[in-house]
Structures are given as C-alpha cells and as structure tokens.
Amino acid sequence: MPNNFRVKTSGSIGGTAHTIYTCPASTQTTVIGLNLANILTTGITANVLLENADSDNINIIKNAPIPTGSALAPIGGTQKLVMEAGDVLKVSSSDSASIDCALSVLEVS
Predict the structure, then answer these.
(1) Would the pTM count as exceeding 0.90?
(2) Domain ranges, ordered by start, for the chain
(3) Most buried residue, 37, 74, 79, 105, by most Cβ within 10 Å?
C-alpha cells in the first residue's frame, strides 16, 4: 500500500462552501493539518464541513472566529481526521474572498 503526503491549497475562499479535498477511490486519508488564514483587514468566522458517502454532513468547526491578521488550525497537532473514499472536506467564511487555506494529508491506497 503506497503512502503519499500531499498538500492542497486554495485562496480567497468566501461564503459558499468550497471543496478543499475529496478522498480518492480505494484510498484512506489522514488529514494531518488544516490552516485557515484571514486575508482581510476585518475579523471573520470560518466553517469546516465533512461530507461522507452516507450523506452525514458534520461540522468540524462552525462560526469559529479568526481575527484580523490571524489564522486558525482546526486540524493539526494532536487533532487528526480520517477520511474514507468519497468523503469531502469543505471550507466557507462569513465574508467573500476572505480565507486562504492549506491542507496537509497522508493518502494510503
């Protein structure tokens, strides 16, 4: 089973839930880090949503504040997230074009 570290980035995420990562078929993924940076000059709130194949949509964080000039790491350190094939991780913000996102994962296929 090959193991592959990957980084996925997305800039200027806004109010609509934006797909950051979809776990590929025949793969299990461990999310080892997720960083959300506020790129505006005002405070915002962020949401991270996990959607799975069973249509169970759960909030990883909801309306979490990110002050001006700051970032939030909802996944990382001792906090990990396991995703199965077809699971989708989405991010949204309280303001348009306000979050830059970096996601680090380990894919096992």
Answers:
(1) yes
(2) 3-108
(3) 105
